[in-house]
Amino acid sequence: MSQDQTRFIFITGGVVSSLGKGIAAASIGRLLRARGLSVQIQKFDPYINVDPGTMSPYQHGEVFVTEDGAETDLDLGHYERFTDANTSRASNVTAGGIYNAVIRRERRGDYLGATVQVVPHITDEIKQRVQVVADSSDVDFVITEIGGTVGDIESLPFLEAIRQFPVEVGRRRCMFIHLTLVPYIGHAGELKTKPTQHSVNELRRIGISPDMVLCRSESVLSTEIRRKIALFASLPVDAIVSAYDVPDVYSCPLTFHEQGVDDFILKDHFGIDAPAPDLESWRAIVERAAALSDEVRIALVGKYVKLEDAYLSVAEALRHSGIHHDCKVKIEWIDSETVQQPAVTALLSEMDGILIPGGFGGRGFEGKIAAAKLAREHGIPYLGVCLGMHVAVSEFARHVAGMPGANSTEMDPETPYPVIDLLPEQREIADMGGTMRLGADPVRVKEGTQAHAAYREGVVYERHRHRYEVNNHLRKQLEAAGLVFSGTTPDERLVEISELPREVHPFYVASQFHPEFKSRPDRPAPLFREFVGAARAHRERGARAGSLEADAGSLEANGEVGVSRVA
After folding, report:
1. For the chain, what is the domain count?
2. Is 516 noted as a catalytic residue in this protein?
3. pLDDT tens digits along 197-207
4. What pLDDT score does 561 carry?
5. Is 117 left (phi over 0), alpha (psi -120 to 50) or beta?
6. Residue 549 annotated in active site
7. Which of 386, 395, 469, 496 is the catalytic position?
């Protein structure tokens, strides 16, 4: 499909936030991809931050990093996992980024002395950000999710821009989908449609009439309720979709397809004939995930564990790996500041695997060191991601390599052994936002290592987000003590992966990059996949050892000690 034939779908939300616009956008994208169409999804966020890179994870969840090095909203992770299409810096736009671009143009004199206003200058910039995705990607569909809810003051410029957009490209090339809430009122014993009616009316008030309404609810909406909403929304009943709660978000594309969402979008609205969707592989993943009975327990040791979205991609990568190994992954969320408490230490020692994810700052760092030490000394599979590698290297330096007090200069600028230090190119940088090493870079993987066994390739591309690296001045001393640097940049200037040899530890691997960002439901990130596999093997060894001990105790009780019962 040529650029002048690209179709545009805009997804808005009403009533309350966090209803799942990102999952809805990703699910529609999955359905369109399953019908042989190319799709790009983007997210418009109405906050004034230029990007979420400097925001606390407690404010906005994880920061998702794209191939081209943009720090973006976590919904882009959903887009990539569902559609298996990489996003880019054009895929996440904020109000701060829009105003920043317009003000820079004004300072340069680009507006030739005109009074710069929200309409047309801000709205024109927003519309241009929609069009640039179509122009640069040459895709069949661009799906744009508008953050926030209808009625928010900060969302108004974005809503006005998408109201104007069909005037420029044609109404038949645009579709508006509105996501609302149909709450169940317990004391009344019924679902209420009034919030949806008000939300649709608010959207109309600003000039947008939705072409489809997705109704979030706890249970499936009856035909009667859908008819009622259709009447007030001036839509056919087929355009009212029951977006009910499901146990697995990956089943959302299937429930949408069952209700004819993709048929309505393609045939009824856009008049496009497309092949029937190929959803067999996706359905197989959902069914396989639902059938899992075995389980491994992974301790995720971090500083933002009170909000699981702070480590969303990590949790999803673990889940993908569990599906691959036919086991559920139960995550134990461990606050790194509590690790040295006896009860928490005891809990960690019972885990099948220990994972330390990325992060910044010194809070809880010593707890992470203690967790890594426990994993190393007790043979518990360990995976470190970004800061998790700094933890692993610092712990090894202190307790194996004879470097007491070894640390990262991020945590202790005066450490006698700065095994982790600031990248040289970062030393003169003052601004925090968007100035780290960001995006995909090549990693050369050393043959004969656990990392190479995972990737089965000599060079891979992984996404980065960091300022600190292994200090090259201390690399030889660490290697002499037994730490293996199994991945480096192609020029060997920077360490990318560290590990312990398999004969020393079953799985003790850490990466400077973030492999979780590229994990997919049917193609888990290699390091996560091998980590969960090692965790399952660790659990099975423990179960077998427990069984043998029980057998030995039974034999001793029956006076049969010395008789071999090992098959």
Report:
1. 2
2. yes
3. 999 999 999 99
4. 38
5. beta
6. no
7. 386
